[in-house]
Design brief:
- It is a single chain.
- The protein is an all-alpha fold.
- The chain is 73% helix and 0% strand.
- The two termini are 16 Å apart.
- The mean pLDDT is 94.
Length: 181
């Protein structure tokens, strides 16, 4: 399989989890402010790092579900940045949420292919633990931008950082799913 096929396959896995969670919980995530979503991604990335360092888990879930959660929370973050949090989840229906999910995941995929072209698929030679560290670095940057009320002088905004986190998580999923890591 080539990168496009691998990317599409792991994106479909994440989308499937998003759909099942939406079936279980509805649009309860609409209540979350972007800062809370950043913190959710943070705890998922910290758990991955702890699993990488410790080599075992006391909760019967591995790295793969946490990477899928980072993808899905990243997309939710992009939706919330644009549409805002709402204490009333009824302001968006599930079809609209899924259409937005697909839109933002597609935009993220386009960004990955542009960067992948420029970097020559360097991600394939990286370790999953490096993706974890890069995700944690991006989270730290997002928290700083959030503390600065979304303002940057020279750097990319929160949305670009969310997209990078999603792509690093997708790279990790590809390595786990197709490259035996």
């Amino acid at each position: 399989m080539d990168t496009i096929q691998q990317f599409d396959k792991v994106m479909a896995l994440c989308r499937g989890v998003f759909l099942k969670k939406m079936g279980d919980y509805g649009l309860s995530w609409r209540i979350m402010r972007p800062q809370s979503i950043t913190d959710q991604i943070f705890i998922k990335a910290i758990r991955i790092r702890n699993l990488e360092i410790n080599g075992f888990s006391k909760v019967d879930e591995g790295i793969k579900p946490e990477l899928m959660a980072i993808v899905n929370y990243g997309v939710i973050g992009l939706i919330q940045l644009t549409h805002g949090a709402s204490i009333h989840t009824g302001y968006m229906d599930e079809n609209e949420a899924l259409a937005l999910y697909d839109k933002y995941l597609s935009m993220t995929k386009e960004l990955m292919f542009a960067k992948n072209h420029d970097y020559g698929e360097a991600w394939r030679s990286m370790r999953i633990s490096s993706y974890t560290d890069l995700i944690l670095t991006k989270i730290s940057r997002v928290k700083q931008i959030e503390d600065n009320l979304g303002q940057t002088v020279l750097s990319e905004g929160i949305d670009a950082n969310y997209m990078d986190m999603i792509n690093y998580a997708l790279f990790g999923l590809i390595k786990l799913e197709f490259m035996g890591e």
